[in-house]
């Protein structure tokens, strides 16, 4: 994050905002600058990519589904807009520790323990570590002692849009983001790679809420895509994973996606609502018994 902060200082904060007598490495100034940069970056990432996904990927026929709420898109956006500033406060504390030298982030490839191989291995390690950590955090958030207070607001959305991707209770959003932020305090990671991965995981979070169910056939057993996460929202206690199905399989919470079996929400629209679907026909959903009171958990 110091790379971003240095650019912000050079082009904006130092010449236009702060007095010249205030050192750039002073902790209060860094905290204030990080708060601005973190919020601005979060809003830009969210609105830019969720909007692109909503208009170019999300199948708007899903809005005809009976579980799609009135004014849902507006409500998803407002939930996110209200949550992001609160999520940013503890996140900034972690970023502050990072830029003040407490992490294992490094600037040059030469600083990698194993050169380019180390950089590549760190990417795989980052994905494994965060996927494992988020699985257990996410599953813990479904425990009855904390679910209603923290995680239930995200499960209001049964048929999600990309705008639901960050529509969390603030503490829920922060807890599920913690693995991304603490990884470089345990393992070496290139600073540019860290920023790239941070952007990519935000895009992935948007993508698993966009209702686009297609995953290359060969990867279906391994990748936790939108089809898997749709079933998580519909059936509650399955498919907690972020990128992969590994931990759901280990933890006994894996459910093969109804959409990939031909029994997903799109077919319900086709068959029960009786409307023509002109969107992504290749989604190929067939039949889903969503409303028998047994299959769908409306917690």
TrEMBL record:
Q: Can you name one GO molecular function term for this protein?
A: C-5 sterol desaturase activity
Superkingdom of origin organism: Eukaryota
Q: Which residues form the Fatty acid hydroxylase domain?
A: 124-252
Cellular component GO terms held in the UniProt record: endoplasmic reticulum membrane; membrane
> What keywords are assigned to this protein?
Membrane, Transmembrane, Transmembrane helix
**InterPro entries the record matches:** Fatty_acid_hydroxylase, Sterol_Desaturase_Related
The Gene Ontology biological process annotation of the record reads: cholesterol biosynthetic process via lathosterol; negative regulation of ferroptosis
Transmembrane ranges, per UniProt, are 40-58, 79-102, 114-137
Per UniProt, subcellular location reads as: Membrane
Q: What is the name of this protein? A: Sterol-C5-desaturase
